[in-house]
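User: Design a sequence. Structure:
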């Protein structure tokens, strides 16, 4: 039986990262076959990826009870919330203060409008708690896929002068440029050589899983895979290809290579996910052979 936690809340601090990774890890273990809301690798990417250079101010918060970190939430203007909860806690007792905090952030920012948050289709407890607070289901938000590494991995044929390998320190400038080129379709990326170099020092980062596709001395596609030996799982975050080379199977090549490397490391399951608006990625993962395992839905309160 769950119990209502006595909560203490404060802004998130970088020293909370280890506890946040453990929170995500517990979510993965409790949510199988889904990965839950965030894999440990997702958490690290959020803290070390390009957007980590943008000031969070008071837009990330943590809640503790007598058992440790119970919840973590982020707020994005004008009213979007994402949060992790420790499995086994009283979901309504945690969701309510998170939503109240988001309302306070709106007031502090002098913004108004609906609050939105994603919920997994499989997460009946969160959905019930959101309904109780006046949220209603809306548009699809994203899809999660998985690959069991006891399955055969698709073969990939490389053209002459093409190489699939992992990124090294000498690639830092080119690798940061590749990220900006791959993601510019969604707006200007803040990735720089400096913050990519910082990413390479992050917890759970393994350069052997930062796989790139090089052709004619140019980096054209890449993926970063985050392995978590404690759960035996990994997540792809991110996967990208230069827009002018998209559709040539380069992303398929780097992902296949990463899966071979994960298998050699003893990982049994790899996850990948994407937003509902990213039709190209949805098609890539489906055609590659990943299995759809869960869906995110946007819940809104006006």
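Assistant: Done.
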């Amino acid at each position: 039986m769950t119990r209502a936690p006595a909560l203490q809340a404060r802004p998130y601090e970088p020293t909370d990262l280890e506890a946040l990774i453990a929170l995500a890890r517990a979510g993965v273990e409790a949510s199988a076959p889904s990965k839950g809301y965030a894999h440990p690798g997702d958490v690290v990417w959020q803290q070390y990826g390009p957007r980590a250079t943008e000031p969070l101010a008071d837009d990330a918060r943590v809640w503790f009870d007598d058992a440790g970190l119970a919840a973590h939430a982020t707020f994005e203007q004008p009213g979007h919330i994402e949060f992790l909860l420790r499995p086994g806690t009283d979901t309504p007792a945690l969701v309510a203060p998170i939503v109240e905090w988001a309302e306070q952030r709106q007031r502090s920012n002098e913004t108004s409008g609906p609050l939105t948050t994603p919920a997994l289709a499989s997460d009946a407890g969160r959905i019930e708690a959101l309904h109780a607070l006046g949220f209603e289901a809306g548009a699809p938000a994203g899809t999660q896929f998985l690959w069991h590494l006891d399955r055969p991995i698709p073969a990939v044929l490389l053209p002459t002068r093409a190489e699939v390998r992992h990124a090294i320190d000498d690639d830092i400038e080119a690798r940061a440029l590749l990220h900006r080129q791959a993601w510019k379709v969604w707006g200007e990326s803040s990735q720089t050589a400096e913050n990519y170099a910082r990413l390479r020092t992050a917890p759970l980062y393994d350069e052997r899983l930062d796989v790139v596709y090089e052709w004619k001395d140019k980096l054209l596609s890449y993926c970063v895979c985050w392995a978590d030996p404690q759960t035996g799982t990994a997540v792809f975050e991110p996967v990208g290809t230069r827009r002018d080379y998209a559709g040539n199977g380069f992303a398929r090549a780097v992902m296949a290579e990463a899966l071979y490397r994960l298998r050699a490391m003893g990982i049994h399951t790899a996850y990948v996910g994407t937003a509902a608006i990213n039709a190209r990625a949805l098609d890539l993962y489906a055609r590659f052979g990943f299995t759809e395992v869960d869906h995110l839905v946007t819940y809104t309160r006006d």
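The chain has a mean pLDDT of 94. The longest helix spans residues 91-108.
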